[in-house]
Specification:
binds adenosine monophosphate; UDP-N-acetylmuramoyl-L-alanine:D-glutamate ligase; nine-stranded mixed β-sheet; globular
C-alpha cells in the first residue's frame, strides 16, 4: 500500500514514439506526469492526477503502479494521448511530429478527496485550463510549481499567464521563456515572470544547466557532462519532478533549499537522458542520486 502523497503531480500520460540520432523507439510510456513522478518518487511519495485511455496496456499500468506513486487520481476513458517527436544532434529541443491529444483534450482533473489538502504541487506540462482547474480544487497549497511548453504559449497564452500568477515557482525552458515575452534577453523575461507573481523563476538550459532568478538573487547551476545521451525526452519533466520532490521532502522553501532542489532536479534529468523513455530513470536508486549530487558539487568548486 502506498503512503499518502506528499507531492501531487498533474500532467500528461502518453504513448510516445521517439527518434534520436541513436535510435528509434515506438510505443513507449511517457508524458509529463510520468517522468515527473518517476523522479519525484525518489524523494517523497507522490500522487498522480492524469488520464489514460481504455487502450492503456497492463504492462504500462504496471509501470505506473510503483512504490511511492499513488495512482488513485488517474481517470480512464477514450484513447491514450499520443506524442511523436524527434531530435537532431543538438538535443536541447524536441521537434514535434504528432500530438494526438485524444483523451487529454477533454480531461477535467478531479482531485481525490485526500489530495485537496496537498501543500506541495507540481503542475506538469498540460493544457493551462487543466492546470487552473487543478489549482481551484486545492484548499491550502503552500507551494505550487508550474511547467509548460511552446504549444500552450502559442495557443493559450492568456490562460497560461493566469496560471503563472497563481504559482510560487515557474520552471520553463530558455526558448519558451523567450517566446513567452518575445525577447532575446533571458534576464528581461525572468523579470517579467517575477512581476507576474512567482517568487522563483527557474529557466532550464537543457544540457547547459539551469538558472534561478528571485527578486534578490540569481543562481546558476551547471549542466552535468554526460558521456552517453540517447534520448532527452522527459528531461524537463524529470527536472521539475526531482526539484519538487526534494522541496516536498524538505517541507519548506528557502533560497538554499531551492538551490539544492535545482541540483537534484538536474541529477534526475541527467540520468533520464542516458536511455530511451523511462529506461534509465526506472532503475535509479536514492544512492545513485546522492552520488551524482556529490559530483555536481565538485564540478562547481573552485
Ligand atoms: P519534455 O521532454 O520534458 O519536454 O517532455 C516530454 C514529454 O512531454 C513526452 O513524454 C510527451 O508525451 C509529453 N508531451 C508532449 N507534448 C505534450 C502536450 N502538448 N501536453 C502534454 N504533454 C506533452
Amino acid at each position: 500500500m502506498n503512503e499518502v502523497p506528499q507531492l501531487i503531480i498533474l500532467g500528461s500520460i502518453a504513448v510516445d514514439d521517439i527518434e534520436t540520432p541513436f535510435g528509434k523507439k515506438d510505443g513507449l510510456i511517457g508524458g509529463s506526469a510520468v517522468y515527473a513522478a518517476y523522479s519525484a518518487r525518489l524523494f517523497a511519495p507522490v500522487g498522480l492526477v492524469s488520464i489514460v485511455g481504455d487502450d492503456f496496456s497492463k504492462d504500462k499500468w504496471k509501470l505506473l503502479n510503483r512504490k511511492n506513486i499513488d495512482i488513485s487520481g488517474i481517470q480512464v476513458g477514450g484513447k491514450t494521448f499520443h506524442w511523436q517527436g524527434y531530435y537532431e544532434h543538438d538535443m536541447n529541443a524536441a521537434q514535434t511530429i504528432v500530438t494526438d491529444l485524444n483523451c487529454l483534450e477533454s480531461f477535467e482533473p478531479e482531485l481525490p478527496e485526500g489530495y485537496r489538502k496537498a501543500k506541495f504541487v507540481f503542475l506538469g506540462n498540460t493544457h493551462p485550463a487543466q492546470q487552473m482547474k487543478f489549482i481551484e480544487q486545492l484548499e491550502a497549497p503552500e507551494i505550487i510549481a508550474v511547467d509548460t511548453m511552446n504549444l500552450w504559449i502559442k495557443n493559450t497564452r492568456d490562460l497560461l499567464v493566469q496560471v503563472i500568477r497563481r504559482a510560487n515557482i515557474i520552471v520553463i525552458n530558455e526558448a519558451e521563456v523567450r517566446e513567452l515575452f518575445n525577447t532575446a534577453s533571458i534576464v528581461k523575461a525572468a523579470q517579467e515572470l517575477l512581476a507576474l507573481g512567482p517568487g522563483y523563476v527557474i529557466i532550464k538550459k537543457g544540457e547547459h544547466g539551469a538558472l534561478m532568478f528571485t527578486e534578490k538573487s540569481h543562481f546558476s547551476a551547471p549542466g552535468y557532462p554526460l558521456e552517453t545521451v540517447k534520448d532527452p525526452t522527459g528531461c524537463g519533466d524529470c527536472f521539475g519532478g526531482g526539484l519538487m520532490g526534494y522541496i516536498a521532502k524538505a517541507g519548506e522553501v528557502t533560497d538554499a533549499v531551492l538551490r539544492r532542489a535545482i541540483v537534484y532536479g538536474s541529477v534526475c534529468a541527467s540520468y533520464n537522458a542516458e536511455d530511451f523513455g523511462l529506461g534509465r530513470i526506472l532503475n535509479i536508486k536514492k544512492k545513485d542520486i546522492e552520488a551524482r549530487y556529490k559530483e555536481f558539487r565538485e564540478i562547481r568548486s573552485f
